[in-house]
Design a protein that fits this description.
This protein is mainly alpha-helical. It has 13 helices and no strands. Helix 3 packs across helix 10, helix 5 packs across helix 9 and helix 6 packs antiparallel against helix 11. It starts with a helix and ends with a helix.
Length: 291
């Protein structure tokens, strides 16, 4: 199948809508993230049915812990550094860590093209998010460390999922283990923070979309993409998320992008094309060479 990169980009588009949808909810960010994981993880587990039992392994259960821990690290980072720096470091470091882990753990050295395009994409992401001149919080060092840890956790669960899928496990079952497990972990967090805000119709609809759309459906697409797309490439393509979020901010929320942010958006888009197109071309050549 040659549409793996398109599936990954589709997942990233859904992820990029999460911020706009989250503005409709009155809950704090940690409670919102917990609710999103609980709903999305439960939906993925139900969709997989009994299939998830056949793929459960210590490695995937550890990856499920990483899914939950990523959420906590991300919000800890943003709370200390501000949204711009925390987001750039966490999201930007993810593809780098993914490429390194894939190389160290499985001997898959990323190509020079991937390295150059990923570097450009991370720079574009930084310019896009930081172009508004956002201020950092006071605890910058600890916040950056939390963000880097978040990027490493993302890389770990992405590489773990890709490895299981490549070994023949159904992608929907793998994602159900990761996010169903994370849902179990985050349920106490949700209950401790309180769920009264779910009684608001607008908030309930928003969190259902966040759970079902930006988590369940998006990770089904992401898992589908990992069947044919190298995980390092998929992690770089996932940088489409902040681009979609920025465009929604302009179109839906009436925000304005600074010139440096526009330049970052263009650089990011070109970099993602540079990563995706060679993968498609290589597979087409492989198909043409088959008897």
């Amino acid at each position: 199948m040659k549409n793996g990169p398109l599936a990954v980009v589709g997942a990233s588009v859904l992820w990029g809508t999460a911020g706009t949808a989250g503005l409709l909810v009155s809950a704090d960010s940690v409670a919102l993230a917990a609710a999103r994981l609980v709903i999305g993880g439960s939906a993925l587990a139900l969709f997989a049915g009994r299939g998830f039992r056949r793929v459960v392994s210590p490695g995937l259960l550890l990856a499920a812990v990483a899914v939950a821990a990523y959420q906590l690290c991300f919000f800890a980072a943003v709370g200390r550094t501000g949204v711009a720096i925390g987001t750039v470091v966490a999201i930007g470091s993810g593809p780098v860590f993914t490429g390194l882990l894939s190389w160290v753990l499985h001997g898959r050295r990323p190509s020079t093209r991937w390295a150059l395009a990923t570097t450009a994409a991370v720079c574009g992401c930084a310019a896009l998010i930081g172009g508004g001149g956002a201020q950092a919080g006071g605890q910058v060092v600890s916040g950056v460390l939390f963000a880097l840890l978040g990027g490493l956790l993302y890389a770990f669960y992405a590489v773990s999922a890709a490895r299981a899928i490549e070994a023949g496990a159904p992608s929907n079952a793998v994602m159900s283990v990761l996010f169903g497990g994370a849902a179990v972990i985050m349920l106490p967090v949700l209950l401790l923070d309180g769920v009264r805000w779910l009684a608001e119709p607008r908030g309930l609809l928003a969190v259902l979309y966040l759970g079902l759309g930006t988590t369940a459906v998006s990770y089904l697409l992401y898992g589908k993409g990992l069947r044919t797309t190298p995980v390092a490439t998929a992690a770089t393509l996932a940088l489409a998320e902040p681009a979609v979020a920025a465009l929604l901010g302009v179109v839906v929320l009436g925000e304005r992008l600074a010139p440096v942010s526009v330049a970052g958006l263009v650089l990011l888009a070109l970099s993602l094309v540079a990563v995706a197109v060679p993968e498609r071309a290589a597979r087409e050549r492989a198909l043409e060479s088959q008897p």
